[in-house]
Amino acid sequence: MDAAAVVMMIVALVTVWGGLIAALIHLARHPEDASE
Predict the structure, then answer these.
(1) Any stretches that span the bilayer, and where are they (predicted)?
(2) pTM, entire model
(3) Beta carbons within 10 angstroms of residue 12's beta carbon
């Protein structure tokens, strides 16, 4: 793998895992109402 491929892979992993972590933090701070 050349350097560009490694950089793009790292960017993709950070985007996916960062989004997942951000979603988990958001749900922990603002839980959904289960009153339905």
Answers:
(1) 6-28
(2) 0.66
(3) 10
